[in-house]
Write a structure and sequence with these properties.
With about 180 residues, the protein is of the alpha/beta class. It contains five helices and nine strands; from the N terminus they run αβαβαβββαββββα. About 25% of the residues lie in helices and about 30% in strands. β2 (about 40-45), α3 (about 50-60) and β3 form a beta-alpha-beta unit. α2 (about 15-35) packs across α3 (about 50-60). The chain is globular. The model has no long low-confidence stretch (mean pLDDT about 90). Bound molecules: guanosine-5'-monophosphate and magnesium ion (MG) (2 copies). Guanosine-5'-monophosphate binds next to β5, α4 and β8. Its main location: cytoplasm.
Length: about 180
């Protein structure tokens, strides 16, 4: 298969595949140390976090469990409203569990801030957040993120799970979509 036409839709690469994997190894060592002797349930947020979950979970040299949620924010188009609807709930009971939410990106922070509150209210022993990317200039609410891969500029990015109109999730690195794609 020739993917060069897909790569050509990027105006620039922000994070390479190699940088992503090096960062995940670093985060995995911190997580192993922080959760030593404790159970750990990774909660992935569908669909964007699929790649981070696959690579982070395999970088961890310890037992973990995985569960998944799908959420959608009400509101128009690309602007997050902060009102979140659960499309697919967890299968796990969170009582007494140490939960680590695994996310692709924090933009306004509204989704994650809601999600953390929701999971905490189910009786989890702890709820922390691991995100591959964060846009500090777009944050609308303070979100305490324990593990963050990269802070990036306030631009729309794709790849490594992140989509534009459901495409580009399978790119190995993360980049900025070229204007010719959406203009
Ligand atoms: P928040 O509630 O933090 O504003 O929204 C986070 C969600 O918006 C992410 O999980 C992701 O699905 C989507 N999102 C935010 N920024 C971007 C971006 O730059 N690119 C893509 N593809 N999705 C984004
Ligand atoms: Mg996400
Ligand atoms: Mg999306």
């Amino acid at each position: 298969m020739d993917f060069t036409h897909v790569e050509a839709d990027l105006s620039k690469t922000l994070v390479t595949e190699e940088e992503l994997h090096a960062k995940l190894e670093e985060l995995a060592r911190q997580i192993e140390a922080d959760y030593e002797g404790k159970d750990l349930l990774l909660v992935g947020v569908l669909r964007g976090a699929v790649m981070v979950m696959a690579d982070l979970s395999r970088a961890l040299r310890r037992h973990i469990e995985m569960d998944w949620m799908a959420v959608s924010s009400y509101g128009s188009g690309t602007v997050s409203s902060g009102v979140v609807r659960i499309l697919k709930d967890l299968d796990s009971d969170l009582t007494g569990r140490n939960v680590l939410i695994v996310e692709d990106i924090i933009d306004s922070g509204l989704t994650l801030s809601w999600l953390r509150g929701n999971l905490e209210s189910r009786g989890a022993a702890s709820v922390e957040i691991c995100t591959m990317l964060r846009k500090p200039d777009a944050l609308k609410v303070e979100v305490d993120v324990k593990y963050c891969g990269f802070d990036i500029p306030n631009e729309f990015v794709i790849g490594y799970g992140l989509d534009y109109a459901e495409q580009y999730r399978n790119l190995r690195g993360i980049g900025v979509l070229a204007p010719h794609v959406y203009e």
